[in-house]
Design goal:
Strand content: 15-25%
Shape: globular
Number of helices: 19
């Protein structure tokens, strides 16, 4: 049956059709929907893991038990999972194991623009890369077949545009796969040095075998230029490309070039590339981010002109227009607006529970080590209450190092902020090192009772699992005390005075401390908004103090503060800033 499907939904459909039985993932845009869609199939057990390393190890355990398994994450999550990934390349699998990774060219929701193909190359693991929703479905099935045929984990690479665009998919029935018996094999699965050294040659030979298979498997294909574009039997240009870049090439260039469309981007098909080179006058490699395919082509010494990053940027996304311009084609002018559109920078939602705490930190001029989550928006003006953001969990260990080195000559002028989901992901070990090494560091846990930035997924502190059913819940206060943090206190971030007092007192304490800023995300269905506030214009002095919290529901119009009733949730944070009583709560 043909259906219009989001790329991530099609990937989940492919998991279902392939007989996948277990999915363990950590949410991360643009990969999140694969797991959320897979959870809609009763035949697949799905879960959110605390982090990507745990998720991959869980999926590995399931595949060893004989069930096909999948693990999903975004590109930076693959860094977290790299430790087990590289060794799984040596152990191989039992039942099939597929690892989904979604790259984010253009950094729409990411802190860097890394290219996950480097992980595939370094780990010596095959990587498939679909170019539309139908391939997302089909490649998910194919990935499990490759995994079991060649005894290897398989990386399955999506990107933002393929993950979040729609195209036609032709669905198939689910393949019921019998559970594969597990056979104890110490030499294969126990990666002590004596065993690992014997597995390395196996990995190298496997890559050669997969490369040979890819030459004739059909996963890579050649699309010849139309006859009218041939000269002496050769196309003027041959394009080698993959993923969303392939779609741009087809739209911008049509049949004017020959195309080698790659579905497997590691290992690359050397023989096929050499044969393709004989049919064209020059090769142009069109790929987003790093010149992975281009560098491989240059290593083959093809004897013809090769272009790539000399024509296209190594940074950001490509587009149809960028490709058309590079080939000297006319590009239609876009529609221009007579009135300039004001920029709309990302900002915390009206009523966001993090706003009050960030205002207190801004007011106290505290140096803030930030972390990854929607609260990273605390760095945005007018609050500007964040100094550093590196990666998941780095705020705690970064603060510890800062304080041990006497940062800014004042150990107590700094705090770390981290969300509840990020704390479980990789912040607990940072808190452990603060407690263990008795660092005079204050950590602020921004607990909004959900994983907010990726769309409200549950986590081990919420007491619910992926399906919303009751689950084990981490008691953060008890955990902190068990680690050796004696100063633990909970504050309401809607109470600015309480937040200020807590920060001042814990900064004055000569030891490790934890402030839990706890209030549920205002967008949760379980949170009922209060009536919106109304400005008393007679009392408003136009001081603009209420604007200092950066709430999108507040604006100055006609010299007076105004509150948008469609945005305001009645949190009352702004009323605490007004000295004239113009914002009664």
């Amino acid at each position: 049956m043909k259906q219009l499907m989001l790329g991530n939904a099609a990937a989940a459909r492919g998991l279902y059709e392939s007989g996948c039985a277990v999915v363990s993932s950590y949410p991360g845009t643009p990969s999140t929907e694969i797991t959320e869609e897979a959870a809609k199939f009763a035949e697949i057990y799905c879960e959110w893991a605390p982090n990507e390393k745990v998720a991959l190890e869980t999926a590995f355990g399931a595949c060893l038990a004989g069930k096909r398994a999948f693990c999903g994450m975004k590109h930076v999550g693959l860094n977290v999972a790299a430790d087990p990934l590289f060794t799984m390349s040596y152990t191989g699998v039992n039942a099939g194991l597929v690892i989904g990774v979604a790259d984010d060219p253009g950094m729409h929701s990411s802190q860097n623009e890394q290219d996950s193909r480097h992980h595939a190359i370094a780990a010596k693991i095959p990587m498939l890369e679909p170019a539309d929703s139908e391939e997302a479905r089909a490649f998910a099935r194919l990935a499990f077949d490759i995994s079991e045929r060649f005894d290897t984990p398989v990386l399955y690479k999506m990107c933002t545009r393929i993950a979040h665009s729609q195209s036609i998919v032709e669905t198939e029935e689910r393949a019921e796969i019998a559970q594969k018996p597990y056979t104890k094999d110490i030499s294969k699965y126990v990666m002590a040095p004596a065993n690992a050294i014997r597995r390395h040659p196996v990995v190298e030979q496997r890559l050669k075998d997969i490369a040979l298979w890819s030459e004739t498997s059909g996963i890579n294909r050649i699309e010849a230029a139309a006859p009218k574009f041939l000269k002496d039997g050769k196309a003027e240009a041959g394009v080698i490309t993959s993923s969303t870049s392939y779609q741009y090439v087809k739209e911008a260039l049509g049949e004017s070039v020959s195309i080698l469309k790659l579905g497997m981007v590691n290992p690359l098909p050397a023989g096929m590339i050499r044969d393709f080179a004989k049919t064209v006058q020059k090769i142009i490699v069109i790929e987003e981010l790093d010149p992975v395919i281009e560098s491989f082509c240059r290593s083959l010494d093809l004897g013809i002109e090769i272009h790539g990053k000399d024509m296209f940027s190594i940074c950001g996304e490509l587009s149809q227009n960028a490709i058309a311009r590079a080939f000297g084609k006319a590009v239609p002018e876009g529609i221009s607006l007579d009135t300039p559109v004001p920029v709309r920078p990302p900002i915390m939602c009206a009523g966001c529970p993090h706003r009050g705490m960030f205002y207190a930190l801004h007011k106290l001029k505290v140096m803030v080590w930030g972390d990854i989550g929607c609260y990273t928006l605390g760095s945005v003006a007018p609050l500007s209450a964040m100094d550093v953001t590196l990666c998941m969990g780095a705020s705690l260990s970064g603060l510890h190092g800062w304080n041990k080195a006497g940062g800014a000559q004042n150990e107590r002028a700094s705090v770390a902020v981290i969300g509840d989901s990020t704390f479980v992901h990789s912040g607990m070990t940072g808190l452990a090192t603060i407690a263990y090494n008795q660092s005079a560091s204050t950590v602020i846990l921004l607990d909004n009772s959900i994983t907010g930035m990726t769309g409200h997924q549950q986590n081990p502190t919420t007491g619910k699992n992926l399906y919303g059913d009751p689950a084990g819940r981490i008691d953060v206060e008890a955990l902190a005390r068990a680690m050796g943090i004696d100063h633990v206190r909970v504050v309401d971030p809607y109470n600015i005075a309480e937040c200020e007092q807590a920060v001042k007192e814990e900064l004055a304490f000569e030891g490790p401390s934890l402030i839990i800023s706890r209030r549920p995300c205002v967008l949760l269905k379980s949170v009922a908004p209060k009536p919106p506030l109304v400005v008393d214009e007679a009392k408003c002095r136009s001081c603009k103090q209420c604007m200092n919290i950066g709430c999108p529901a507040i604006a100055m119009k006609g010299g007076k503060a105004r509150i948008d009733p469609t945005l305001c949730v009645g949190c009352g944070v702004c009323s605490q800033l007004c000295r004239f009583g113009a914002l009664p709560n």
